[in-house]
Amino acid sequence: MTDAVHALDLVAGVGQRTESFIFRAIDGGSGAVLGEVHPSRGATVTIDQAAGTVITRALTLEFDEVESAAINPLSTRIEPFMLVGGVEYPLGHYLFTEPVRQDYAEYGTEAGEGVRSIMSSPLADRMAILDTELEHGFTADDDAASDVLRALIAGLPFTAEIDDSASVIANTWAAGTTRVAVAGTVAELGGYLAPWFNHQGVLQARRRFEPALVIPDFDWDASPHVYRDTITRADALAYTPNRYVVVGNGGTVNGAPVVAYCDVPSTAPHSALNIGFVRPHVVEVQVSGLAQAQEYAENMCLQQTVAETIQVSGPADPRYEAHQVVKFEGELWLHTAWSMELAAGGTMRHTLQRAYQPTAAPDTPTIFA
Known about the structure:
About 15% of the residues lie in helices and about 40% in strands. By secondary structure, it is of the alpha+beta class. The strands form 4 sheets. The protein has a 15-stranded mixed sheet that branches. Strands 11-14-13 form a 3-stranded mixed sheet, with helices on one face. It has 3 domains: about 5-125, Thrombin, subunit H (Beta Barrel); about 140-205, 3-Layer(bab) Sandwich (Phage tail protein beta-alpha-beta fold); about 210-369, no CATH class.
C-alpha cells in the first residue's frame, strides 16, 4: 500500500496528513497545459447520481483581476488535482458555462479609472459537450445498446469506456434532440447505470449491477472515513413504491401488451411481504419487447428505490466517483452523491442509499397472490 493510500485511508499510525489542491488551465482545442491558476475563493465539486438519467458534476470558481483578464472562458478548461502523499489525483475536466465579470471601482478614483474586473463562473464537466443538439435525425434499428451509444458520440472530442450490451434499441430521435437525452434513454433501455465522466474525463457507461452482492469499494468499518457527529439518517418508507411496473406503449407479445415488473427484495423494510400490500409505480415506455421492458423495470428498482439514506461527512478523498459501494455499520450502501471542498483540510459530504439483498421469489404476500 502506497503512502498516498495510507494517508487517504487514515490508517493507524499515519497521523495528520498533508494535502493540497492544484488547478491547471488547459487549452480546449489542443489540450496543452497553459499553466496553473489560483481561484480566489474555496471551491466545491458536487456530483449527484439521482439528479437525472446522466450524471453531471458541477464546480464554481472565482479568479482575481490578473487571472480574470488572462483566462478565455470559451477556450480554457480547468483540471483540478488533489496532491496527497506525493501523488496527484485528478478530479475531472471542466468547461466554463456562464462566466460573469463584475467590475469594481477603486476607492477615490474618477469614473472609468481604477476599475478592477473579477470573473466568476460555474463550470460543468464534459457532459456539457454531450449536451449538444443533433444536427440530423438519429435512428437505432434493433441495434445493440452499446453500438448505439458509440455511434451517438462518434466524432466528439472525448474518449469513452462502454460495456457491451445485448439489449437492442429501436427508436428514432429528431434533429434538435440533445445527445444527453438520447444517451439517457439508451442507458435506461439498455440496462446501464446513469452514464458519467470519471476523474480522467472519460465517459463511462457501465451495466447495471446488484450493489448488495458485490465486494464494497470502500470499507468504512475498517478505517475512520466518517466524522461521527455529522451522520444524518432519513427514510421514505411510508410512500416508497415496492413494485415497479413497465408497460410498453408499442408492440405486443402474442397479442398481449408488453408488461414487466420488478419487486424490491423482501429484505427491504418497505417490501410487500413486510408491509402487507403492493404499492406499485407504473410507467409507460417505448420498448422493443419483454426483455427490454424487464431491463427497464430492474433499472428502476435499483435507481429509484430510495427508502433508507444516510448523509455523512469525512475528509476529502479523490477516489470517489460514481456508482460505488460502501460498507458501513455492517451493511452495504450505494454511494449516490457527494460534494468535496477543494481546499486543504476541507470536508467531503456523502449520500448513501441502502442496498437490500435480492430474493429469488416474488415478494407478493399470499393474500394478494
